[in-house]
């Protein structure tokens, strides 16, 4: 059974690499080395890295994952806040024409429906993606199944930080003893991605979007980020296992910085006053929820302001220094 499983895994990797190579070739047709040499160089380097051997530093990540994530309620709780800090902000991008409701209510309903559908499927002894039911319609289940098939709903951050990239991990981890320790973390990330997709899919359909699955998938990627070799900086990819180890817990902070950069660019590149107001609302929503959950210290770049203040102020006048000294 194990040999057959490994064979299927290897075949799947070979098959997908072939598909990627074809798509890379098609993309390169539009990039001319003589007209855009820098773009051509970057593209060929990226393709070489993606199709080359992977250095995932699996053993290191498994050890680190067990140490920092296994059975850790705080990690799962922090992961759960991302639906509120990021997903709600991005859901505001979708403006339904009918059945209007706030992004908060939309996401909360989707979370309840995913939990309800999961419980319903377990009672009936069937897969969550088998067919629609009381909580999620057949059309919505089909859309989620398609998104799951292309990896949008995979627990990507879990895979990035532990090196465990098993297919359908949050449907089959109970079969593996070592996965039990990660139940809270994988469960929270799975709920985040599925509920965000469901809320965005419903919202985009009511907005009249012709490609609701693609629109919902983009909201998930923007809110919960894309992880893996393809989303690492070139210098990290070139360093192989060493770069991967060093970058393990930098993926979320760097994605978050990119998220902020993109939101600010949306404001400056808006083509109308209405678009600029919406882009500003999305950014403010993100910052407001971060502040609500973590206070001033949780806001982006707060650590830089704190470091600068530490250089200027006298330690004896720093409230945190005084409190730590007397406790």
Write a structural description.
With 327 residues, this protein is mainly α. Helices cover 69% and strands 0% of the residues. Helix 7 (138-149) crosses helix 10. The model is unreliable at 1-5 and 167-175 (pLDDT under 50).
For the structure shown, list the relevant keywords.
0% strand; globular; mainly alpha; 327 residues; single chain; 17 helices; disordered N terminus
Mean pLDDT: 77
Low-confidence stretches: 1-5, 167-175
Strand segment tally: 0
* Beta content: under 5%
Order of helices and strands: HHHHHHHHHHHHHHHHH
Structural class: mainly alpha
The percentage helix is 55-70%
> How many separate helices?
17
Outline: globular
Radius of gyration: 22 Å
How far is the N terminus from the C terminus?
Answer: 58 Å
| Largest sheet properties | none
Question: In a few lines, what is going on in this structure?
Answer:
The chain is an all-alpha fold.
Task: Tell me the layout of helices and strands.
Layout: H1 2-28, H2 37-51, H3 58-68, H4 73-80, H5 82-91, H6 103-124, H7 138-149, H8 156-162, H9 169-172, H10 183-206, H11 212-224, H12 234-238, H13 240-247, H14 251-268, H15 273-294, H16 302-312, H17 319-325
Helix pairs in contact: 1-2, 4-10, 5-10, 5-11, 5-15, 6-10, 7-10, 10-11, 14-15
């Amino acid at each position: 059974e194990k040999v057959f499983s490994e064979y299927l895994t290897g075949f799947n990797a070979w098959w997908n690499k072939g598909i990627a190579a074809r798509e890379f070739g098609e993309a390169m047709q539009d990039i001319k080395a003589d007209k855009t040499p820098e773009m051509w160089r970057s593209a060929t380097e990226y393709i070489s890295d993606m199709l080359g051997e992977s250095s995932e530093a699996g053993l290191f990540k498994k050890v680190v994952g067990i140490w920092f994530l296994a059975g850790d309620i705080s990690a799962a709780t922090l992961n759960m806040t991302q639906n509120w800090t990021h997903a709600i902000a991005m859901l505001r991008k979708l403006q339904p024409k009918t059945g209007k409701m706030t992004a908060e209510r939309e996401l909360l309903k989707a979370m309840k429906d995913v939990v309800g559908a999961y419980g319903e499927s377990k009672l009936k002894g069937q897969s969550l993606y088998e067919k629609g039911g009381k909580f999620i319609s057949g059309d919505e289940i089909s859309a989620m199944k398609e998104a799951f098939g292309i990896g949008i709903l995979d627990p990507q951050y879990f895979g990035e930080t532990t090196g465990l990239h098993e297919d359908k991990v949050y449907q089959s981890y109970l079969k593996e003893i070592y996965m039990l320790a990660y139940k809270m973390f994988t469960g929270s990330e799975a709920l985040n991605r599925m509920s965000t997709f469901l809320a965005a899919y419903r919202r985009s359909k009511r907005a009249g979007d012709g490609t609701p699955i693609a629109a919902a998938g983009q909201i998930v990627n923007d809110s919960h980020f894309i992880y893996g070799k393809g989303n690492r900086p070139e210098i990290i990819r070139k360093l192989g296992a060493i770069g991967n180890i060093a970058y393990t817990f930098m993926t979320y902070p760097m994605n978050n910085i990119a998220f902020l950069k993109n939101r600010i660019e949306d404001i400056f590149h808006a083509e109308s006053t209405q678009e600029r107001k919406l882009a500003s609302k999305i950014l403010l929503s993100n910052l407001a929820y971060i502040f609500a959950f973590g206070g001033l210290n949780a806001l982006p770049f707060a650590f830089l302001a704190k470091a600068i203040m530490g250089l200027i102020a006298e330690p004896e006048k720093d409230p945190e220094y005084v409190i730590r000294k007397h406790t």
